[in-house]
Backbone:
């Protein structure tokens, strides 16, 4: 399927980055590396978002050098066996996608990098994350750390400038091709959910994974690369686990089921959540669902240019607290009591990742894209409800990009 992105998009991003970072003329960035799954097998490759944003390159272990007005891609040499199994790195394709004509392979590129680093006092790159991100319980891709070790080895006293804040600011405000890609990802997601939950189809499911399989098939058939993140299809009490990924339990027709899924299209993500009932919902289920709908409508009214997300989240916490109080779930407006039943943020940035880069302390601007996902989770009642839509910040407020998908419970 034809991509809305061309070499001009990536070239303009590199030019903009140079304008924002004037402390040095030498920039060096790395693609992600492959990660071992087991034995000689690697996990499916996922490119570093910043590297793709600057180059459009899909391959691992590639380096980007920007030296003044000169630009280079350094591609790793592959032996015959590696090419047989993993394919040939195509120079012509890399030139066409990135708009960079200077491509060096193997030792020729290594020598260039060594000479440039040896001759400069400072270099701009992206600081590596810690090897282990304890808060999330995941290991980071080691490519950036390896690059920085190499740079320090060549020039021990080199001044390394972290440009991640500039890229974060740039990526936060979406350009037209990015908005198009996000909208396509959303349209695919909405269509897949709508088809999967048709009344005639809904009654055929016995297990959560049957629904996940239907969504996966639809995403691919409709042109998506697949899921932008591990899908959540959670029935009953399992919906009260925010990151429930097993999707393997038997469905109870009297319980609600939460979908939190998103297609990936041309690297950009959708992130949509809906809550459904397989049979006529109880009064209590309808009450909780209506409370979450009200919370989302309140969030929509708050969002506009100039809003600070951190302050907005405080307002949403108060509103959800009042909803929980009306439902009889809590008796006070203490934060700990509210967060027991509403444990996550209402909004996050959306783009190359479902939870994309952004600044919660900076004013919202036109062109930013957010997810809006209030939820109420009552484990004692085996009841969880989440409704999530994706919105574009406009000059006057928001455009709800996912508005075509019904929020009806049954």
Residues:
């Amino acid at each position: 399927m034809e991509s809305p992105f061309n070499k001009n998009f990536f070239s303009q991003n590199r030019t903009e980055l140079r304008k924002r970072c004037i402390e040095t003329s030498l920039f060096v960035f790395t693609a992600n590396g492959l990660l071992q799954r087991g034995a000689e097998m690697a996990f499916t490759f996922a490119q570093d978002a910043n590297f793709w944003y600057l180059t459009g390159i899909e391959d691992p272990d590639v380096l980007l050098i920007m030296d003044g007005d000169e630009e280079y891609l350094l591609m790793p040499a592959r032996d015959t066996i590696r090419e047989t199994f993993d394919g040939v790195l195509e120079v012509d394709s890399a030139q066409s996608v990135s708009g960079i004509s200077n491509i060096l392979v193997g030792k020729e590129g290594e020598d260039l990098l060594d000479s440039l680093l040896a001759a400069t006092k400072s270099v701009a790159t992206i600081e590596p994350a810690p090897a282990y991100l304890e808060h999330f319980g995941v290991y980071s891709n080691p490519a950036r750390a390896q690059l920085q070790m190499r740079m320090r080895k060549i020039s021990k006293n080199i001044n390394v400038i972290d440009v991640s804040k500039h890229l974060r600011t740039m990526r936060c405000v979406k350009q037209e091709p990015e908005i198009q890609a996000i909208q396509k990802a959303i349209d695919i997601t909405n269509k897949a959910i709508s088809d999967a939950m048709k009344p005639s189809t809904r009654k055929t499911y016995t297990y959560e994974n049957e629904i996940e399989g239907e969504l996966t098939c639809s995403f691919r058939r409709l042109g998506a690369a697949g899921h932008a993140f591990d899908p959540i299809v959670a029935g009953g009490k399992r919906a009260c686990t925010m990151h429930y990924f097993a999707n393997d339990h038997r469905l109870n027709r009297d319980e609600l089921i939460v979908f939190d899924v998103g297609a990936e299209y041309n690297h950009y993500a959708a992130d949509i959540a809906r809550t459904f009932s397989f049979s006529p919902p109880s009064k209590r289920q309808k009450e909780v669902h209506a409370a979450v709908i009200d919370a989302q409508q309140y969030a929509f009214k708050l969002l506009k240019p100039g809003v600070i997300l951190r302050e907005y989240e405080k307002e949403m916490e108060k509103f959800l607290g009042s909803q929980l109080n009306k439902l009889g779930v809590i008796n006070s407006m203490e934060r700990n009591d509210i967060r027991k039943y509403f444990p996550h943020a209402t909004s996050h940035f959306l783009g190359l990742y479902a939870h994309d880069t952004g600044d919660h302390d900076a004013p919202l601007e036109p062109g930013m894209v957010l997810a809006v996902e209030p939820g109420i989770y009552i484990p004692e009642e085996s009841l969880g409800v989440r409704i999530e839509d994706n919105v574009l910040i406009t000059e006057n407020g928001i455009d709800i990009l996912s508005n075509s998908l019904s929020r009806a419970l049954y």
